[in-house]
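Dear Dr. L.,

I hope this message finds you well. Following up on our conversation about the binding site, I have prepared a predicted three-dimensional model of the protein together with guanosine-5'-triphosphate. For your records, I am including the exact sequence and ligand specification that went into the calculation, followed by the structure tokens. Please feel free to forward this to your student if that is useful.
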Amino acid sequence: MTDVSLFSNEQIAALLAALPDPAFILTRSGKYAALFGGTDARYYHDGSALVGKSIPDVLNGEKAAWFIAQIAIALAKTGLHVIEYQLNRKDVKGLDADGPEDTIWFEGRVQALEYRVQGEDAVLWVASNITASKKLEALLRMQSETDALTGLANRRKLMQALTDNYELFARYQTPASVLIFDIDKFKNINDTYGHLSGDKAIQATADVCRRELRTTDFPARLGGDEFVILMPHTGWEQAKPIAERLRQKVPAALRTLGTLGDGATISGGLSELLPGDSSFEDVLKRADDALYRAKRDGRNRIVHLEA
Ligand SMILES: Nc1nc2c(ncn2[C@@H]2O[C@H](COP(=O)(O)OP(=O)(O)OP(=O)(O)O)[C@@H](O)[C@H]2O)c(=O)[nH]1
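The resulting structure of the complex is given below.
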């Protein structure tokens, strides 16, 4: 520990004032007793006007209650209480809630003080603006779950959605169907018209999925020209007409791309979660077997497998 006697009171006050992140002294009842630092103007407005006010004077109902609850938690702990929270216009009193949405993320590091302030237990609350890293985190998450060519969900995101739906089925028997389809003889499109044209066909297929499916349906690109449509809350009887619609609409969209779409068709395998399934892999495997049969039986068809 630094020997504070090396510094005069004025020097210590200057040091505290120079802290880049704002450090609030908040009492148990939510009073802003003091504010030190917060000099990094890239991230913080001047918070000095808060001193003397109470959290409910500054923040709206639910957010104010949450802040006061965090103070109580920090006071009950011996160590540091670390929290992440966001503040936007509707949280802060006196701002127009309809104004531009401008969410700021903070990490709060909250430490109980060993002495009372203004007759109350109190904490030191250091707030750090972490908006940039939160935005980057969200972007990376989105990229790690998105197929770059089509913008649909990728295999990783699909597996997560399948797991969630399997769990709902196992617990509440909530039905879900899975369609796997691909473009028939897609290799010929690539070989005849080039890989870039093949990519355009894949993108056009994804556009049809986005356009034709309900918002609750979950289209994903598994890889190559292979797509999976997860249809939550949908038994195979309701899923079949949806699959048939894709069988009409995807070739129609491919035909708009020129001669590469001449005679284009798709084949699909459809199945639904069944009581004996031990994981989502079972329904995926049945849908894949059904796709194999559709190919074997002459393509341009949707085959449904029950077991
Ligand atoms: N353009 C393009 N082609 C891809 C991509 N990924 C895989 N492919 C190609 O897609 C083709 C897939 O062909 P297959 O599914 O094996 O067979 P198919 O020709 O569609 O025949 P069937 O499925 O049996 O009707 C292969 O030629 C792959 O090289 C991609 O991202 N873009």
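In brief: The mean pLDDT is 94.

With kind regards,
A. P.
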